[in-house]
């Protein structure tokens, strides 16, 4: 199952759910944007161009940004 929500005004966050109880969230932040991501307990903190976005999660998560694409992998 997939779904879309907004991370920022101009950034959509896509959700992919897989049969092995793994969920992947992905967002194309675009080139040249100053962005970082950190996982703290049950939350992911994303900072894009000085704006902070907090995402609450349930499960073990790892997050990274590569080539302007934010990926958050959550295992139940």
TrEMBL record:
<protein>
    <recommendedName>
        <fullName>Hsp20/alpha crystallin family protein</fullName>
    </recommendedName>
</protein>
<dbReference type="InterPro" id="IPR055551">
    <property type="entry name" value="DUF7127"/>
</dbReference>
<dbReference type="Pfam" id="PF23444">
    <property type="entry name" value="DUF7127"/>
</dbReference>
